Predict the structure.
Amino acid sequence: MIESGVLDRLKRAAGPGGFLDGPADTAAYCTPFRDGETGATPLVLRPDTTEKVAALVTICAETRTPIVPQGGNTGLTGAGLPRIAGNEVVLSLTRLNRIRAVDPLNDTITVEAGVTMEAVQQAAEEVDRLFPLSIGSRGTCQIGGNLSTNAGGIHVVRYGTARAMVLGLEVVTGQGEVWDGLRGLRKDNAGYDLKQLFIGAEGTLGIITGAVLKLFSRPRERQTALVEVASAEAGIGLLAYMKSAMGEAVSAFELIHRNCFSLATETLGHPDPMEGVRTWRVLMDLAGQEAPGSLREPLEEALANAFEAGLVTDAIIAASGAQADAIWAIREEQAEVQRRAGFGIKHDISVPVSAIPEFIAQADAALTKTYPGHVTCTFGHAGDGNLHYNPIEPRDWGRQRWEAETEAVNRIVHDIVADMGGSITAEHGVGRLRKGELAHYKSPVELGMMRSLKRAFDPAGIFNPGKVFDV
Ligand SMILES: Cc1cc2nc3c(=O)[nH]c(=O)nc-3n(C[C@H](O)[C@H](O)[C@H](O)COP(=O)(O)OP(=O)(O)OC[C@H]3O[C@@H](n4cnc5c(N)ncnc54)[C@H](O)[C@@H]3O)c2cc1C
């Protein structure tokens, strides 16, 4: 337990309105967005300035009080939640939510960690720029959380992950110091690129309080197509073809199993936009600076060629922005669809893009052999080699029996991933969910380097203990 004297010091430093300590008020900060264990904490800190974050971390370092940094709490691995023992404080960045500067000439925006992804997108739009990082939870997740998980999302195929969109960071260190690395430079070879260490660190190395983010030209033209492909191989063939035919215009490319559409109809009532019998579909966006409507003809031509080549068997090009959004909603609501459809053993894997069809074939065959009747519900950012491979409980099994197979299913799926030189977590991170898997698959050399970094950056061991790996 945390001593009451320490809690009192933290409350005084946080100031009025800067903390929550009643169980009813702290519950939401301890509850996972989706599956997973509900945690406990005696205190949620809600500082509204970087200086206050630093003061709070200083007290925690002195008293060896563990801190769980938390953004929008939309993470899917338990990384931003306190553990059940109740001896960790939560440090929520929600009130650190100012946009500090927008510089359209430098194509940058400087924001505090608690600004939501959607608010950054809107601020960029106001100066006729694009902030391309975009995920289903954009209205709630925060930039601090996005950077700490190195979020991916639907536009990685064109713009890269969160890591590629950061020019500078402000961080409160394990000693409670403020590192002002808020530089808006595109070239900076003056020593180690320290900001990259905090990106994807899941709150284990420091607390991100601010960031300088890159902005991009705002596309004037967007076309969305839902395409039925002959097979997963044809889907990857189509990606290569579209990139050579349309180049940079390909800004999203998702491979989606047909089950994802039928489950969206069953659970959320989304009408299936397409009839069809094939197993795999591709949802793609094309975007560019050209006049509105100008990409439609080249897209039609490219799809017709792909049809001739036997890659495509059917296609719909959205007739309006509203139709495009309705199709994308089916993709973006898959987390909720699958929650309602039954317990899924979730995987967030990546392999080289070219190996995706082989991964699907091997994993499907291995699981069908051991678990005939499981429901395949695979979708993901195929343009980045990333799939959410989520086998759902066999129809007559029930949650408990399927959940008990989690370790065995993980081993089957992740062994195939490892054999292909892939990653057991492409974009959601490790947190608590995949900590055991990380220990299983990372080499001792890599884990050793991670431990050395952790000791150097967080000597008191206060930042998010028990997450990612054991020190
Ligand atoms: C519907 C839905 C769709 C999603 N789609 C995607 C997707 O397409 N791609 C994707 O990558 N993810 C996706 N996610 C996962 C999730 O939204 C992302 O991981 C997101 O980046 C987490 O941001 P957050 O603010 O909610 O962070 P939280 O969940 O609060 O925290 C995540 C991690 O970051 C740490 N952290 C948070 N803020 C800070 C900070 N300021 N300093 C240091 N550490 C911090 C926490 O300790 C924790 O380890 C999705 C989630 C949902 C619910």
Remarks:
- Residues 232-246 form the longest helix (15 residues).
- The pocket of flavin-adenine dinucleotide is lined by residues 33, 68-76, 79-80, 93, 113, 135-137, 141-142, 144-146, 148-149, 151-153, 202-203, 207-208, 335, 427-428, 464 (CB under 6 Å).
